[in-house]
Design goal:
- It is a single chain.
- By secondary structure, this protein is an alpha/beta fold.
- It is built from 30 helices and 18 strands.
- It has an eleven-stranded mixed β-sheet. Strands 14-15-13-16-17-12-18 form a seven-stranded mixed β-sheet, sandwiched between helices.
- α7 crosses α26.
- It is globular, with a radius of gyration of 28 Å.
- It starts with a helix and ends with a strand.
- About 15% of the residues have low confidence.
- Belongs to the UTP25 family.
- It holds the Pfam family Utp25_C.
- InterPro entries: P-loop_NTPase (IPR027417), UTP25 (IPR010678), UTP25_C (IPR053939), UTP25_NTPase-like (IPR053940).
Length: about 775
């Protein structure tokens, strides 16, 4: 009885998200572990998912570091980490007070109390299990019993959004009301007639019939490219195999009626977008901002687009509204065409057989939106609803809206107060930052259904992790990716964040999109377009890719997985100054070039260069307080194992390090008890702690985000004790780091550094 009563008390103390996770997965989420409160288990599973899905990365760093990381990674269940979610907790954040009293007293007291509970730890607490999440013993055995007992007490959890369910919730109640096959156009509007015009971009793109020789050209011949300069976007690179570059210019002013928008959107878009127009000085367009106008010009031409200058602080919401308008316009036009043809087929004479009504794909989903967090999905749905509502009096019917707000909304009380974080951090991690979700959205005329089954949805909004768990891996019994077979618009927003989560999920998605389905799913083949029957869907799919930076992995997806027959357009502006100009401390920067035969050997070459040329210079005790910034977790594991083997005096912090161990590591490094601190980029991305006591900096590799370079360098001023003359900063780079290097030092210096094989010394005075 005592155990059962304790179990009930534990259950009552859990939040609604904790209860949901407990019911779905049979164990309490490790994020809520009182000892280990780490927020990035679900964000970056690049090591843990190897044991779950047996990923094979294309990068050589995984193979080179696999043997080094085996001893630590295999201690944790990959399934355990896969299902974890990113969530900021008051407890995990509460210890981050940047005052001296917190460093001197709070952390020390907590460290002693935590350290006294652990056995077998040395003075530094540097055992391997500091970087591995702990699984709560007994949680798996009792989770279902506790929830069953709660239901027995009279609580109905079958449809309450505060509780999880065994089967993922989908709305089947409104199936017939949102069926495309059994509904008809309410009225033959002027917009339906406009959609049939040859000048309509939607009809032009979807009705073009490619020939087999054209498909063969796109599969075998390289793309030709050309450049153009636009007022707002800057330098654009157009590439295509079939189409020669046609001068596509962004009009200075756009008439909404000339964009061939679905009729309701012509009136709602200016109202919804008014908030951004107010921020523009002397707007020359009454409907679009200059950025939106040029982006939508490309979107509406159905070309692929890569825009690597998305900023959560400045233009993030502008871009979100623009692609929501394009996606909704596409869906409304496609559905209107189907409903109109339904009426024609109904009214045709018996015995009449026609092949003119091919207007569908093999499955219904047309648009797939990949976003990193639930908050992003929430904002997208709000934009879609706003675009469908003509005014406050004409509200559209939205099914399951209350449940959606409960599961995708955020609780203001969960956010810890008085945390000092950069503005970009607050913008990225606003609202509900759970990264494991997926939801189907069905739109039919003046109604919207949330939580529609995928095969009855028009739009699917999901995170990479959420879509990955549905697709599954080869050999798994329960997996499904047929719903991706007829995707016509793929939108990948904030692609840079997926580099901090798990890029393998994005690659896995791209390998399973636009494949022939394994089942018919009740499709009427007489209505299916020939392009889908010929398995040519990928040549008609439009891909919109938005990122905050240019990265080789993101470029690779755009170049190798986008086959749009009308071509691709990518923004390729080069940075003129670089983030080094934002360093405010007087600091000498030494850029040391390493040589590698090819891009696959650069991982091993960097490691060898570091231990042979760089590390010996810092072994002396006079070079204490040395922070080594490591972007890759695999490189971090490799270095940590080497430091242990060489018995160096070091401590380490990564995305899996426990809260208590982080406190100890920061204190030991500040007081000089540990000479080296290994520090991962993902820890900095998800925490943004200020590390005090740094005197020497080593960038093992250039940061993924260029502004991280200046942020880390400016940490040296956190403990200004008059010894700034001894500060040093060393950066390792190769010729394959040209993009990252340009983002840090600017394009002119990058060209000089790549031409010269000598080390480059730069001195920043704080006024650059």
């Amino acid at each position: 009885m005592g155990k059962r009563r304790a179990g009930r008390e534990l259950l009552r103390s859990l939040s609604k998200k904790q209860k949901k996770h407990l019911r779905e997965f049979g164990e309490e989420h490790p994020f809520y572990d009182k000892v280990f409160a780490c927020c990035f288990i679900g964000c970056y599973c690049c090591c843990c998912l190897h044991s779950r899905f047996s990923f094979q990365s294309e990068d050589s760093d995984k193979s080179s570091a696999e043997s080094d990381s085996e001893t630590e990674v295999e201690q944790v269940s990959g399934y355990h980490k896969l299902l974890a979610t990113l969530k900021t907790s008051p407890e995990s954040e509460s210890e981050e007070d940047e005052s001296e009293s917190e460093e001197a007293e709070g952390s020390e007291a907590e460290m002693h109390s935590e350290g006294s509970q652990e056995t077998g730890e040395g003075e530094g607490g540097e055992e391997d299990n500091n970087d591995v999440p702990e699984e709560e013993e007994g949680a798996t055995d009792t989770a279902e019993q506790l929830l069953s007992q709660e239901q027995a007490d009279g609580t109905d959890t079958s449809c309450d959004p505060r509780h999880g369910v065994i089967e993922e919730f989908t709305d089947v109640k409104h199936e017939s009301a949102f069926s495309l096959e059994t509904n008809f156009m309410e009225e033959e509007s002027e917009d339906c007639n406009a959609d049939r015009r040859d000048s309509n971009p939607f009809k032009q793109h979807m009705d073009k019939e490619l020939e087999e020789k054209e498909i063969e050209k796109m599969s075998t011949l390289p793309k030709t490219s050309s450049q153009s300069q636009w007022p707002r976007l800057g330098q654009l690179i157009f590439s295509s195999t079939l189409e020669k570059h046609k001068t596509l210019k962004a009009d200075k002013e756009v008439d909404v009626k000339q964009l061939h928008l679905h009729k309701p959107l012509e009136s709602t878009w200016p109202k919804v977008n008014k908030q951004f127009l107010c921020a523009v000085d002397k707007p020359i367009d009454s409907s679009f901002t200059p950025l939106q106008r040029e982006l939508f010009c490309i979107m509406n031409s159905y070309r692929d687009l890569f825009y690597p200058e998305r900023n959560a602080l400045t233009n993030g919401e502008e871009i979100r509204h623009a692609y929501c308008l394009h996606a909704l316009n596409h869906v409304l036009k496609a559905n209107a065409q189907v409903l109109s043809n339904n009426a024609k087929r109904r009214d045709r004479k018996p015995g009449t057989d026609t092949d003119d009504h091919r207007d569908q794909g093999l499955t219904r989903p047309k648009v797939l939106m990949i976003v990193p967090f639930r908050e992003c999905a929430l904002r997208i749905v709000h934009v879609l609803i706003s675009l469908l509502e003509a005014n406050d009096k004409k509200k559209i019917d939205v099914s399951n809206k209350k449940r959606f707000k409960g599961e995708f909304g955020s609780d203001p009380e969960e956010k810890p107060p008085n945390l000092k974080r950069p503005e970009d951090y607050e913008a990225v991690f606003a609202g509900n930052i759970d990264d494991h979700f997926r939801i189907g959205v069905a739109i039919l005329q003046k109604s919207m259904r949330l939580y529609a089954p995928f095969y009855s949805s028009d739009i699917i909004i999901a995170s990479p992790l959420g879509i990955r768990t549905v697709i599954g891996a080869e050999g798994e019994k329960k997996r499904d990716f047929d719903f991706l077979s007829s995707i016509e618009i793929l939108i990948i927003d904030q692609a840079d964040i997926y580099l901090m989560q798990n890029w393998e999920h994005v690659l896995h998605l791209m390998k399973h999109i636009n494949l022939l389905p394994l089942d018919s799913h009740g499709v009427d083949f007489s209505r299916v377009r020939m392009l889908n029957l010929n398995n040519w869907s990928k040549y008609y799919r439009q891909t919109l890719l938005f990122s905050a930076l240019q990265d080789p992995q993101i470029n690779s997806v755009f170049n190798k997985h986008c086959f749009n027959y009308v071509g691709q357009m990518a923004v390729r502006n080069v940075p003129l100054t670089g983030s080094i100009s934002h360093v405010v401390v007087q600091l000498p920067h030494v850029f040391r070039r390493l040589e590698a035969d090819n891009i696959t050997s650069v991982i091993d070459a960097r490691f060898q260069f570091f231990i042979d040329k760089v590390l010996p210079e810092y072994r002396d005790a006079i070079m204490s307080h040395t922070l080594i910034y490591v972007p890759s977790y695999f490189d971090y594991v490799r270095l940590r194992n080497y430091f242990k083997k060489e018995d160096l005096n070091f401590t380490h912090i990564c995305e899996y390090t426990k809260k208590a161990a982080v406190c100890r590591a920061r204190r030991f490094f500040l007081k000089g008890e540990k000479q080296f601190l290994l520090f991962t980029e993902r820890f900095h991305f998800y925490k943004r702690y200020t590390i005090k006591g740094i005197r020497n900096l080593i960038f093992y590799e250039l940061p993924t985000y260029s502004h991280f370079y200046s942020e880390i360098c400016n940490m040296l001023k956190a403990t200004d004790n008059g010894v700034d003359a001894t500060w040093t900063c060393t950066v390792l780079y190769s010729k394959y780091d040209a993009q990252k290097l340009a983002a840090v030092v600017g394009i002119d210096r990058t060209a000089q550094m790549l031409q010269s094989k000598k080390n480059v010394h730069l001195f920043v005075t704080g006024e650059n």
